[in-house]
Design brief:
The complex is a heterodimer.
Chain A (H helix, E strand, L loop, with lengths): L3 H9 L2 H23 L7 H14 L2 H20 L1 H5 L6 H34 L16 H30 L2 H18 L5 H4 L10 H4 L6 H28 L4
Helix pairs in contact in A: 1-6, 2-3, 2-4, 2-6, 3-6, 3-7, 4-6, 4-7, 4-8, 6-7, 7-8, 7-11
Chain B lengths: L3 E12 L3 E12 L3 E5 L6 H8 L7 E6 L2 E2 L4 H4 L3 E4 L11 H12 L4 H10 L15 H13 L5 E5 L7 H18 L2 E5 L3 H7 L2 E6 L2 E7 H4 L6 E6 L2 H10 L4 E4 L8 E4 L5 H10 L4 E6 L4 H13 L1
Parallel strand pairs in B: 3-8, 3-9, 6-7, 7-8
Antiparallel strand pairs in B: 1-2, 1-4, 4-5, 9-10, 11-13, 11-14, 12-13
The chains are: A mainly alpha, B alpha/beta.
Chain lengths: ~250, ~300
């Protein structure tokens, strides 16, 4: 992971990362204020920690942030021309992709951490302390475990959007095109999911973009959660493999 | 005899099924040489350079850098190669220094002090902290050379390093290249359009046209080596030309030079002194008779024009 520090530097010094923080801040606050103004009963600050990420993931806003950042870190190397200079170094494509993935994944983790912290602290101000509520406002046990599963699970599954965007990055080799096309494809896929049964979607990462349905039940659906992570990682592996093969086979013009 | 740091053996590349960008090119560059790589636009220079660097896979042939094959052992072959290919490329939102740190990280085990050294070599120490987006093109070119020097290369490949620069910028780069060659002994392969510059800097030249290597060798030896080409002038140009044409085995190369008005000819199997004597006997009043100084530009146009003819 010797390239990790430099990949992290590229992420954290970019304007895109600043945009991401502002985006997260605005969206999370909007969600929280929306719930506050709706004056829903029995919503606690703990609930908000889950509601914000649930909405953030459900409406693929986390995906948008990761598409933006992945396009910078991967597609950006091509349209800036830096890729050919990296390939003049003793760098293997495998190592390069791996380090970029880790850097992006750590960034996703940071975004989730900001979401959690912001939700919790603003939640304390806007909402009362309380317990975690599930469907029908039932009290759910083990909120800490559920919080860990929800956030860590979402974090693990972020690798799918990284690999998905990387795939389009190596094809399109342009920041803006990658953002537009990846987001469009994702949006189209999500649109058509309404015509597909859950039994089929359970075999795709789509049903695991948010793990809320498996956590916000009286008994945590461990099997579904682990299966979802497994399916997501398989798809991630496929897109990563395709990206690797494309880069390995083609000339750098 | 010096060791060959770069050996190109019969490389070829065809694009889109039928466009032959490079055809069976072979070239050797000895350690310490400064080799100019010349050719018109579209001749195949950049394609060749990209094949040398392993960015493009040749259809045939192989490239060896310090004995290591680019095909079989690319990572080892490139360990001591620095290059500037088709212009510099940087992360514009990072500073010059941060960009070099990035490339140093990819190169492996480059100390921080080396980054400062190369910034100093290219004269950008004071601007290292500024973002690259605020650099002029000349500064970016210099930073590009700095990134090529990070690993203390034994082979430095510069693909048109003065492209897009003003005359001051061109001179800066030329002086830098000369200094690098003299002080570090690095082998340099320099691709350029500026023939006069190549003639000044390089001790060896290779000329490519339409993907084929047309000529290569020591610059001095390529340019009128046997001193068989002479220039001659007279106050009575027409008589001189007539008398010259009357001599057997004399080949007129240029009847009227645009700049000097002189006649250039090849002496064939005549001794130059005998040619002079014969012309004087015929009554020509000679004002100039000397071996023609062939410039690289003359040679280049002659070589690339022959194919067109």
């Amino acid at each position: 992971m010797k390239y990790l520090p430099i990949e992290m530097k590229k992420i954290f010094k970019s304007i895109e990362s600043k945009i991401s923080y502002v985006f997260v801040f605005v969206i999370v606050l909007s969600i929280m204020l929306g719930f506050k103004f709706q004056s829903k009963q029995h919503i606690s600050s703990i609930d908000m920690v889950f509601i914000t990420l649930g909405n953030f993931s459900r409406y693929i806003m986390l995906h948008l942030v990761m598409i933006l950042m992945t396009s910078l870190i991967v597609a950006g190397e091509f349209n800036q021309g830096t890729y050919r200079y990296i390939m003049l170094r003793p760098v293997s494509i495998k190592n390069l992709i791996f380090n970029k993935y880790i850097a992006l994944w750590l960034f996703a983790g940071m975004i989730l951490l900001i979401t959690a912290a912001l939700s919790f602290f603003v939640g304390i101000i806007l909402f009362e302390h309380g317990q975690l509520h599930g469907e029908g406002f039932t009290i759910l046990s083990r909120p800490i475990i559920r919080f860990i599963i929800f956030y860590v699970g979402t974090w693990i599954n972020a690798v799918f959007i990284i690999s998905f965007t990387t795939f389009f990055s190596v094809i399109l080799k342009h920041n803006i095109n990658t953002i537009v096309i990846t987001f469009s494809v994702l949006f189209i896929i999500l649109f058509f999911t309404r015509f597909v049964s859950d039994e089929v979607l359970d075999w795709t990462p789509i049903n695991y973009f948010t793990l809320k349905p498996y956590i916000f039940t009286e008994i945590i659906k461990w099997r579904d959660i682990f299966f979802g992570i497994f399916v997501t990682l398989v798809y991630s592996g496929i897109f990563t493999g395709l990206s690797y093969v494309k880069l390995k086979m083609e000339d750098i013009l | 005899m010096s060791k060959n740091i770069l050996e190109i053996e019969g490389i070829s590349k065809t694009f889109l099924g039928n466009f032959k960008a490079v055809q069976n090119l072979s070239l050797k560059v000895e350690e310490g040489e400064v080799c100019g790589f010349l050719g018109p636009n579209g001749a195949g220079k950049t394609t060749t350079i990209r094949m040398i660097l392993g960015l493009i896979k040749p259809d045939d042939g192989n490239v060896f850098i310090d004995g290591h094959s680019i095909k079989e052992d690319k990572l080892t072959a490139l360990k001591k190669v620095g290059a500037l290919v088709e212009g510099p490329a940087f992360y514009e939102y990072l500073s010059g220094r941060d960009n070099l740190k990035a490339f140093a990280a990819y190169s492996g085990d480059i100390p921080q002090s080396r980054i400062e050294d190369v910034l100093g070599i290219v004269g950008l120490s004071d601007r290292g902290k500024d973002k690259v987006r605020h650099y002029s093109y000349g500064m970016k070119q210099r930073l590009g050379i700095a990134q090529a020097l990070l690993i203390q290369p034994r082979l430095l490949i510069l693909d048109e390093p003065t492209n897009g620069l003003d005359p001051h910028g061109i001179q800066e780069i030329r002086l830098l290249i000369k200094r690098l060659s003299k002080e570090t002994g690095v082998t340099i392969l320099l691709s350029s359009h500026i023939l006069a510059e190549v003639e000044q800097i390089c001790n060896k030249v290779a000329i490519i046209d339409k993907g084929v290597l047309k000529a290569s060798g020591d610059v001095k030896q390529l340019l009128n080596p046997e001193k068989k080409i002479y220039e001659i002038a007279s106050n009575d140009y027409k008589k001189l030309l007539k008398d010259l044409k009357s001599l057997n085995n004399i080949t007129i190369l240029k009847e009227h030079d645009e700049k000097t008005g002189n006649i250039s000819f090849h002496t064939g199997n005549w001794n130059p002194e005998d040619v002079l004597v014969e012309l004087v006997k015929k009554g020509s009043r000679i004002t100039l008779f000397a071996p023609k100084k062939i410039t690289l530009e003359d040679f280049f146009f002659q070589i690339t024009k022959e194919e067109d003819d």
